[in-house]
Write a structure and sequence with these properties.
By secondary structure, the protein is mainly α. The chain has 7 helices and no strands. It has a domain of 83 residues.
Amino acid sequence: MKPGRRPASIIQPEGHMEPQVPGVQPDPPAELSPDEAKEWNRFWQVSPPDWFPKETWPLLAQLCRHICHARWLGEALQEFRVGLLDPKNPKDLAHLNQVAVMHDREGRAMGTLMDKLRLSTQTSVKRNLAEPKQAEQAPEVRPWMAQGRDRDDHLTEQ
């Protein structure tokens, strides 16, 4: 290559990703359905602006898919509850079982992704904030230590 200025097509290849501006909510990925895009926007609205780095966006998109799919399966289960399916019909019971298993699988997938994205209550509590509160609530004398002292005091009194 000749010395001098290089063309922009070499420096920045076509199809490059735009840099992410901190605090700006990105548009939902194009492959998400309208309902999944609503879930995407909901997560961005309730989370701090820097909560989802770009490398977590595929996980967030998948979580949105699982949420919508679980909702759809829940509606299918509701059909059984309102009597649209006959509980005495073996085919309907087999159908119910299949839908219940799929719904359970979606719930487990959602829980796993929420843990990975630090969206569940257990993973979102910051330990450094929780520890001082726990220390304040802890009794000064531990019950098992107090019993030992009482026993020792009792032994020395005799």
